């Protein structure tokens, strides 16, 4: 297990390095730089040039990359070009805010989806199953921003039950009750999106397990159905679900830019969109790194959990041929 | 310096992507009725919440370039001079200057006298040194200040005494008076900072380190969320602000902003997309000001042969350009796209301003027959595919504009259809704003563009936009338009400080430019402002959309209930 972990960690570092290389190249290949946004066309091109020089933006891309990577390794995410504010100062609060929003939606959807999916696998094509399918279709098909606007119109503008947008009411920062009220609408929108896939995964995974020989054997031996489901089947059915959840960990920080925009949630998705517009490379790179790290860590956690839930995985891995 | 609007926000239906110029004029007509409660006596206290869709960048007046930072500066800094409602330079109780500048008989010296009562928020006096330091820094290329081109005609700045400063110009340059409607920075805080490092100095981005001299102090900046300003208890002015706190709240886009206005979460929104104006009005309790602002949109031609296949410029003929102006249904755009929030224009002077040449310009009514006639006279003949051709070249061009701007999307489609009706093929092309600026606008690489100028101050001087002295990369004449008569007229226009004499020159400019048409001037347009019922002001303090930052006109006198 230790050897396996070390190997995976080394792999992850290499992957992260490649990600930074590719994204840095791509971002800098896109036309339009930060000083172009900062200065209006023609007003003062000389000012733009001087600013670009003062900020080191006129150097070759590879030198900019090496400097950036060097700073990153020392834990320095750099400064914004426009006003020289430390990237971390802008970025970290938004990461926290996104985790609050996405985490709430993620946990809520798991709490609903897994039991529901499992139940549906035992009552295939029943009313509950049909309802879940319907919700899945709606969840997949309905644009989140549109659903969000509908909810705002109804519950906030017309009925005035819930706040329209933002994370806190001005002056009530830190009040958990206030945060809860602000979470309801965006979490509803996001949960619908998550539910759609999770219920289906849970159901499909459980169904697959329930068709296995050992379940049939258990049933034949006269084991009670609840015991078959919860004792024998559940553990195995969870394995593919855990994989999906591990991969989805990155969603927690990657955020949902559209939902954050509609609800004016001060999160990382919204920040990314805004920074992409103004070509703030240092912030964009920092966000990319945070998300990449989460993806890699999520994968790692999924693999570890996988090994814990299903000991066969470890054995296979020792052999080095399961991937 | 006064910043213009150069937002790159793509949200909402009516984002104000435009570029800046120091040309222009102001509108003398007044705005709408103040809210009903205006008859009440002002009360002190309360919070005004203003919405915006972009965060500030840097409030240091030397580097202010974006609208949001300029808005913040409006609360934080006193200007040397201010504009009155007609766009004249004026001394207000909240201006730093004690009187209007004394201009020497030859028009080359401006002596500015400051009030000796003005103080920085750290208690230090505002002095002539601060004025000199600010303008010297803007002039210094190492600072990279965006306003450098506004002060390039200043030869020297001298401190006469603690409260008197003298500007000596290289030549007579009338628009300079408007340049003095500007905030200054505290020399005692910044004089030892190397000029190259000023832009990255925390002054202007850290509330605790930004010493200001306006009615409100900067208390907090929560990036991408809000900025708050508290009335400065030690503000030096005789007139104190009534509103004790201003919150400048940042929304993800204009649609979210408008919803918050309707919900009552914010009291003032500077830009309601025209598509949502009706919904806001129907909500009730919100005063919507529709008067157009200091910006105009145009169809710009390029005259540089390198930009065209076979180096054939289809716009060379004056009659051809006039034909295009006749072929475009501009009134239809104002009625249907702008929903009445715009005014037709034929020259780069805002309608109703002192320099507006009114009847002396050529007006192009929508007239398809006239357009066809002029095109024929200029030698264009319909080809087999119905598209006009001359000397073996089809009349077809690419019309660039920025993506995400729904107003321009609609207008470009109308232009495409209108010109197709007279046999011209238009290929609209939407490009991301940032890329567009870098790759096309700055170097002047395009065939035709749909763009707007947002006028930084009410002066009508347009040399940097239209004179052949200012071809890229040195200036804003991105279409490489050359007209020697106009080149000289712009110089005549700013070479006297006598307004009547200037007015005659601009009448001449209006006539020439509307005949020759480097642009098809489309319309002056507005960003409808929404004001909630909590906000009160007397009629003389009502917002004045035609001025820069006019949506906060005289905000020191407003009050909230």
TrEMBL record, chain A:
PROSITE patterns: ABC_TM1. GO terms for biological process: transmembrane transport. This is Diguanylate cyclase. Its main location: membrane. The chain crosses the membrane at residues 99-119, 131-159, 179-199, 237-263, 283-309. Pfam families: BPD_transp_1, BPD_transp_1_N. It comes from Paenibacillus beijingensis. The keyword Transmembrane helix applies. The keyword Transport applies.
UniProtKB/TrEMBL annotation, chain B:
Residues 96-462 form the Solute-binding protein family domain. Keywords: Signal, Transport. It comes from Paenibacillus beijingensis. Residues 1-44 are annotated as: Disordered. This is Peptide ABC transporter substrate-binding protein. Belongs to the bacterial solute-binding protein 5 family. Residues 15-33 have a biased composition (Low complexity). It holds the Pfam family SBP_bac_5. One of its GO terms (biological process) is peptide transport. GO terms for molecular function: peptide transmembrane transporter activity. One of its GO terms (cellular component) is ATP-binding cassette (ABC) transporter complex.
